[in-house]
Amino acid sequence: MPDAAPAIAVRDLCKVYSGKAAVDKLTMTVPSGTFFGFLGPNGAGKSTTIRMLTGLIPPTSGSIELFGLSLSTDEMAIKRRIGLVPDDSLLFDRLTGAEFLEFVGRMYTLPRALAAQRAVELLDLFELSAERRKLIAEYSKGMRKRVAMAAALIHRPDLFLLDEPFEGVDAVGARLMKDILLDQVRHGATIFLTSHVLEVVERLCDYAAIISNGRIVAEGRMQDLRAGSETLEEVFFRTVGTDREYEKLEWLT
Amino acid sequence: MIAAILRAQLLSMRLRVGVRRGGSIFSLITGCIFYGFWALLAWAALEFFSDPAALPQLKTLLPAGLLLIFAYWQVSPVISAGFGATLDLRKLLAWPVPHSKLFLIEVLLRLTTCAEMPLVVAGIGLGLLLNPDLPATAKVTAALGSILFVVLNVLLSVGVRNAVERLFRHSHLREFVVLVFVLALIAPQIAVFLRIRFSTVLHLVPTFIGWPWTAFANLLMAQALLTSTAVALLYLAGAAAFSYWQFERTIMLDSGTGKEDSSEARNPAILNALFRIPALFCGDPIAALAEKELRTLARVPRFRIVYAMSCVFGIVIYLPTLAEHRRTFFTANALPIMSLYGLLMLGQTSYWNSFGFDRSAAQGYFSWPISFRSALIAKNLSAGLLLIPQILIISFFARAMRFDVSVPRLIETLFVIPIAALYWFAVGNISSVRMPRAMDPDKMNQMSNKLQALTIWSAPLLLLPIGLAYWARSVLENEWVFVALLAVAAVVGAVFYWVGLDSAVSAGLRSREAMLRELSRSEGPLSSG
Fold this sequence. Notes:
The complex is a heterodimer.
Chain A: E1 8-17, E2 20-30, E3 35-39, H1 46-53, E4 61-66, E5 69-70, H2 75-79, E6 82-85, H3 97-107, H4 112-125, H5 141-153, E7 159-163, H6 171-186, E8 190-194, H7 198-204, E9 207-212, E10 215-221, H8 222-225, H9 232-240
Helix pairs in contact in A: 3-4
Chain B: H1 2-19, H2 21-49, H3 55-79, E1 86-87, H4 89-92, H5 99-109, H6 116-130, H7 137-169, H8 171-193, H9 198-204, H10 212-220, H11 225-254, H12 269-275, H13 278-281, H14 286-298, H15 301-322, H16 329-332, H17 334-346, H18 364-367, H19 372-400, H20 407-434, H21 448-462, H22 464-476, H23 479-510, H24 512-520, E2 526-527
Helix pairs in contact in B: 2-6, 3-7, 3-8, 3-10, 6-7, 7-8, 7-10, 7-11, 8-15, 10-11, 14-19, 15-17, 15-19, 17-19, 17-20, 19-20, 19-23, 20-23, 22-23
């Protein structure tokens, strides 16, 4: 059952680097049990926001609440309920896929036997069984993303924070990951997803927010955002703006 | 093109220096001391070789000296696992840079391998140039010969570095290659052990002009000028061809046309059982973290090599003492000192930079529901566990070599080394969070020089409590005093460790952002040494 409290509630969240705001007074609510798309151009502040939500980096100011708990006071309780796929690799290259998944399971307090059993099942699910004995260092980019997704699932979290999870994954793998995520939402989990592939977000998400220069420029239900016959891509370009700077470069045109 | 590559590297280094000013100052001071020592040696060489009275000895001493320089130049980078800066061909091959230009940069970079040797060669060359009793032509040949000798060594070190780096990528050959080089290093120790006199060693240095050191010695002194010049040039051409050939082979491997060993985990049941030892006496997450650490380290070629070295080098250093039958402080405490040396050697691949091999995955320690303290304790625990087999291996070999290794001495060592480790782990934890740096498990050169310097610098202070216990035992000849002081050292060590851990945890949490940024950072077009 979805929680009564929103999965994510941030108020006036700021992250300032050398006087420049990467995230600027971000206020946003992600209802529990929803598939939430977090969009924005490169450098808009998406990854910084996810890092602050996971406690990887401290905010300069503002508050973060997950499931009604404050990240600053109930950090451990919150982290136990999160499944994370970050943009940077969170994989230990000198472990095999099975060893890594078992290890992550144990980080989330699963008993060793249960973690090992789930690791094997997840490797089967993500079609990595054949590579069971291979070190992660030998995995392709797509395989690494699959293992990262499997690791995010192993403790059955309530909230998934996914930073570009489909990047480098082949069509079959991406389809599988999307099906699993949709199934998790049906079972009450919340997904917070960043992706540059707007079609994917449009198809999967029921809520979305667009961030630009560290500020939310559009937010709401997907059908409300796409007022009329607009596609999400058109909404995105309308709110974020496009430029055709390359036309100024004569040698390129 | 060359300028563009070097500029890209300078820009990458500028960013790094900005992040860790403390580390840069430390490197600067260490560098001044290290090169100051070699500059002194070069000055001594200048004084000696410029003295007309030394002339009769030159014919023997100069080839021997050049042989020593030659051997040091080519062997020491492998032994110390520090090749200096090198081109990261995997990055550079994506661009249309001619191989010949990359080779030229690589040759110039080899001056960073053993940069102290050109200093010494310059001292010798200048000394000969100033020697009034040498023929006038020696003024020219001493200068030219010194430069050519440096060029020969630089070219050869390009070939050696490329050959060794490639060999290290083949998992089954790495340890064997290191063993060969270790044997090369042992040679002088064995000579002392066999009581071979220095003068005999000098006579063993082949005086045949066909050897490079003899040819160059003759060239420097303007002796047998035609033959020595011809032989020297022949060696130079051979070194250039060898190094270019090896460089091209590395390029073939890096561009994917060569075959590299695939890394598949093959854990025998016994090894799996060993990895699970932490779970016998502590629960998760520390047990899981320590197990992960042991599995990782066992699969990191660089760690395996250093571990093998740490089990052998202490004994190698002690070999000359076997020839003496006098019982001294050092012979009486051979096993603890050898094991302590092993502990210090492990530092560069474990406790000094304990997050180095984790790289960006270190973010897990901050995003999983575990305390950062657990991560540090687990890393220390795994390093501590590795000390036990290390002590046993050292004891076994030391016993086989007839060192004083009794069961009480072994038990004493098994107590003393973990106490010493408390001090080193405490400082190591702080350096791991304050000076983190991503390390490539396949590369042998990263950061080793800085960490070796850190070990040498901190040794006198950190060894003080245990050294005091041994000193008291040796002076007072009382075991109870020794045990009491050791107990004090253990208590102080535990407090020191706890304080150090607290400091490292708060520094890690406070600066986790910078720490993770540093661990996720990739190098510029050059890999620094």
